[in-house]
Structure formats: C-alpha cells, structure tokens
Amino acid sequence: MRSALSRIGAIVQKEFRHLRRDPRMLLAVVLMPVIQLLLFAYAISFDVDHVPTLVIDFDQTPASSTYLQQYDASPFFDVVEHAQSLDDVDAAFDANTARVAIIIQAGFGRSLAAGGQGQVAVLVDGSEPNAAKVSRAYSVALNQLYGQQLTREWADQQGLDVSSFGMLEPRIRTWYNPERRSSDFLIPGLMAVIIAIVTVQQTAVTLVRERDLGTQEQLEVSPMRRIELMVGKLLPWTLVAFLDVALITVLGRTIFGIPLRGAAPAFALGAMLFVFASLGMGLLISAVAPSLDTANIMAMLIAFLPSFLLSGFAFALDQIPVWLQWISYAFPARFMVTISRGVFLKGAGFTELWPEMAALALYALVMLLVSSLLYGRRSSR
After folding, report:
1. Is the pTM of this model over 0.90?
2. Of 58, 175, 195, 231, which one's alpha carbon is 20 to 30 angstroms from that of 153?
3. Structural domain contains residue 174
4. CA separation for the pair 229, 150 (Å, rounded)
5. What dihedral do alpha carbons 82, 88, 90, 94 form, nearest 10°?
6. Are 144 and 136 within 8 A, CB to CB?
7. Helix or strand holding residue 82 (H, E)
8. Angle between helices 206-213 and 264-288 (to 10 degrees)
9. Contact 343, 260 (CB under 8 A)
10. How confident is the model at residue 224, as a pLDDT?
11. From CA 13, how far away is CA 232, in angstroms rounded?
C-alpha cells in the first residue's frame, strides 16, 4: 500500500512540475472558467422585457387612445413608433426595430360605445420564438385586463353590482425563483457546463502528451500499475478543478446574487464526484486519441455540446425526444445540473440528491477502470 502511494505521489509531483513549467496554462485553466461564467451569464438570458412595439391607430378616438395607454404603461412593451400604414409593419419587422405591432381598426370606439366588440390586431415577429411566445402571452393578458375594465365600467353605468357575482380569482406563486430571473436558473447549470469543459479538455491530452514527449515507454517499464498512473494523473487536475468550483461558486453568490438554500456539504460532495467523473471521461479520451489535436477535438465535442444540450442546462430534458433523454444519461453533466439547481434553488440536500451522487460515483469508477483498460491495450500493441 505504501509503495503504491509512493508511486502515485511521484506521478503527482511530475504533473505539478509540468504545470510550474507552463504557468500560462495554469493561469488559463484557473481564469478561463471565470471568464466563461461572466460571458455566458451576461450573454445568455431568457428574460424578455421592453419589447419594441409599433402601433397603428386607424380609429383616432379617445377610446383607442385609452386602449393604447395600456401598452405605454406596461414595462414589458416599449412603444417605439406610431405608424400610419400596414407597410410600416413589414418594414419595422424586417429592420428589427419592432417585435410587436398593435393595429386598431377604424370603428373601434364606435363599437365599444354601442356595446359591441372593438377590433384590434396584434402581430408578433416569430423569428425569435421565445420572445414571440412571451409577447403573445403578455398581449393576451393585457387585453383580458382591459376587457374586464370595460365590463366593470359598463356594469357601473347600468347600475349593476358585479361584486355580488361569483368570480374565479387565481393566485399564482412561482417557487424557487419567484422573480423568474434567468441568472438564477442559468448560473447553477453553467457551473456544471464550465467545469466539464475545463476538466475534460485538460485531462484529455495528459496521456497523449506522454506519447508525444516519449515518456510513455518509461512509464510502461516501471513497476507502476495502470490504475496508479490514472489516479496520479487525476489528482493534480482534481485540485485545480476544485479551485475552479470554489471561484465560480463565489462569483455566482457575490456578483449575481444566486441564493444558496440547500446543504453546502451536499453541493461540495456532488461537485467532487462530478469532477472525478469528468476527469475520468477526459482520461478515456486521452487513452484512445492518437494525437493532441484529435484529443482536443474529441474533448470539445464530448464535453461542450452534450453538457450544453443534454444536461438540462438550457432546455428541459422532458421536452426533448425520448431517445435523446436516454443518451443524456451517458454524460455526467446531466446529474450535476440537477444537484446544483437542487442545492442552490430548491434547498435540497443528501436525502433528495443521493441518486444523482450515486450515479456520478459509479460513472467516475467506470471511466477510470475503462480508460485504464484501454490504455493498457493501446500500450501492448
């Protein structure tokens, strides 16, 4: 046992010596996650507000002006132009100066005064589906509220007491993210994506570098076992990854105000297991990649795209095809995103998150054993 630890320690010393010889790489590995977090957090947002809105009033009556004031008063819509013709709508949509167009037909005020229905057209630019969907929902809600206001005014004029009528009053509460901020939703998932990219990318080249430097043969004739080599290769990058996790967590809490409602030890354990799983995936790539370039490309394809698309970071997993949901289990980021959001947003702890932690532990063990086996087969050729 003591000799095994001594051999692992020698590999760890060797890896740290490589890092000291190339401080720029170490600086990049530590700072890159911070830069990525800031860029992603500010660049990616699902918040939709201040939508540029164009209005056309063919009625030009006090009733139409009162209706349009609802849009002027709304923080969601920004009325940027009062146009005169339908051609202006096409021009504004093509130039991206407006996303919503409100068109009031002639006779709007007369219809309302006669107790009829005023005709209003709401056109939404659907080239951005998320903004279009939210804009449509806000417009429908605004029109419903205005319709209720007109109903109350009519009832008052008729001397009716609408308060005696039975009414449905829904009270909707949003749990875990009451302000519905995109940063609260995205940053816990970003932690998993960024750590996956850094750990897999750096570890993917570690065994390939030994072949390029010509030191692989020396390691093969040494009394070191393959599993000891793998562990020795993992430990330095594990410490660097833990430093990255700490930096990203501190930035998320201080700069973006992400809440931490759950058990911090549960997050720490989940992050540790996720780091081991990601490093194991990097070792697996390094064991099979023939060159540094191939290792880098494979690492980016395997670490970034699945972590971004198949982890639940940006898209809910229950909304993607079932066969992709099964494929997502092959990537550790899927489990870490659940752990991160569970701890930060939902107040979860070990009781709720132990299945994801067990999956990450099993994943890390399998990756380490498989990469050791594949490296041994490659070395014996």
Report:
1. no
2. 58
3. no
4. 76
5. -80
6. no
7. strand 77-83
8. 40
9. yes
10. 59
11. 9
How many domains are there within the chain?
Answer: 2
pLDDT value at 366 more than 70 = yes
Residue 22's domain comprises: 2-45+181-379
User: Of all residues in the chain, what percent carry a pLDDT higher than 70?
Assistant: 76
Residue 175 lies in a domain: no
| Amino acid residing at 38 | L
User: How many CB atoms lie under 10 A from the CB of residue 292?
Assistant: 15
Q: Are residues 105 and 202 in the same domain?
A: no
How are beta strands 77-83 and 51-57 bridged, if at all? Answer: parallel
Contact between residue 291 and residue 215 where contact means Cβ atoms under 8 Å apart? no
Indicate whether 358 pLDDT > 90.
yes
pLDDT band with cut points at 50, 70 and 90 for residue 357: very high
Quote the radius of gyration of the chain (alpha carbons, Å): 29
pLDDT given at position 207: 63
Is there a single domain that holds both residue 32 and residue 61? no
Nearest to 106 by CA among 66, 164, 63, 60: 60
The maximal CA–CA distance of the chain, rounded, in angstroms, is 99
Main-chain dihedrals φ then ψ at residue 28, nearest 5 degrees: -65, -40
Query: 36 and 59 in one domain?
Result: no
The pLDDT tens digits of the residues spanning 144-194 come to 777 766 666 656 665 655 555 556 666 777 787 777 777 778 888 888 888
- Coil vs helix vs strand at 334: helix
